[in-house]
Amino acid sequence: MFTGFSDETVDFLWGICFNNERAWFEAHKETYLTQLYRPMQDLGGEIFQFIHQQRPDYPLVHKTARIYRDARRLRGRGPYKESLWFSVEEPSELWTAKPTFWFELMSEGWTYGMGYYLPKPLTMAKLRARLDQDPAPMEKLARALAGQDEFALDATVYKRPKGPAPSPLLEPWYQARSFSICHTGKLSEELFCRDIVERLEKGFGFLLPFYDYFVTLDAGPDPRDPA
Fold first, then answer.
1. Do residues 89 and 98 make contact, with C-beta atoms less than 8 angstroms apart?
2. CA quadruple 82, 86, 90, 93: dihedral, nearest 10
3. Those residues with Cβ within 8 angstroms of residue 149's Cβ, 6 or more apart along the chain or in another chain
4. What is the C-alpha to C-alpha distance for residues 48 and 136, in angstroms, rounded to an integer?
5. What is the pLDDT of residues 34-49, one digit of tens each?
């Protein structure tokens, strides 16, 4: 059971920011395991169980990230990540192309939400086609998002605009090349106790209808195919 992160958790995250090298990490590995990695596993496990109970038919899994960076992609950075996260997602070799729930903890704050890291262009083309053909379901979701203050849409848009969108309400979604629906906050007391569990359950419960909508895109028809 998750009981909260600790001051040692934050100290470790700040430490790895300024001492991103093997000697420092090895000297603090036990702190990493007991104060960051295992609590993150516990929190992710509880959130996975919550989502699974809400959507038992979805083939979702829970993953806690490794702190070790891929040695082939260091690009001048240290060998360790400077934040840690868990995800709840559909198993796939191309997980970046699937909608994913996540929670991430950093030295100065945290974030959680649902979205795509790198959706396929075809997926976004299918989204635009669905918006054109039947805008009402997404308009309902867009109004729900606009009517609350926990989450915001964070989208990367195409350089050349698509469109026009079926309605102004759908314009941000229509132009998106990738997106997430996320909350970003500073470190707060709820992270150091079980209060964060309740907040994440409420937040991910709100995001589930969005996931229901996007997870079906891959199975939809290719809009490039002739009718």
1. yes
2. 30
3. none
4. 30
5. 999 999 999 999 999 9
Q: How far is CA 42 from CA 5, 38, 152, in A?
A: 11, 6, 27
Strand order in the sheet with 176-186: 61-64, 84-89, 100-105, 109-115, 176-186, 152-157
Q: Which two tokens stand for residue 81?
A: 């990540």
> Among 166, 80, 82, which residue's Cα sits nearest to residue 129?
166
> CA 96, CA 18: separation in Å to the nearest integer?
29
Instruction: Record the tokens describing residue 161, joined without a space.
Output: 């605009």
Q: What is the rounded distance in angstroms from the CA atom of residue 115 to the CA atom of residue 96?
A: 10
Instruction: Specify burial of residue 189 (Cβ count, 10 A radius: 0-12, 13-18, 19+).
Output: exposed
pTM (two decimals):
0.93
Please state, in angstroms and rounded to a whole number, the distance separating the CA atoms of residues 100 and 115. Answer: 5
What is the spatial distance between Cα 2 and Cα 71, in angstroms, rounded to a whole number?
Answer: 31
Tell me, what's the pLDDT at 225?
Answer: 63
* 3-class state of residue 109 by DSSP: strand
Nearest to 113 by CA among 39, 191, 47, 189: 47
| Percent helix, percent strand, percent coil in the chain, to nearest 5 | 50, 20, 35
What is the tens place of the pLDDT at every residue in 170-221?
A: 999 999 999 999 999 999 999 999 999 999 999 999 999 999 999 999 887 7
Contact 180, 104 (CB under 8 A): no
Non-local (6+) Cβ contacts of 114 within 8 A are 99, 100, 101, 102, 180, 181, 182, 204, 207, 210, 211
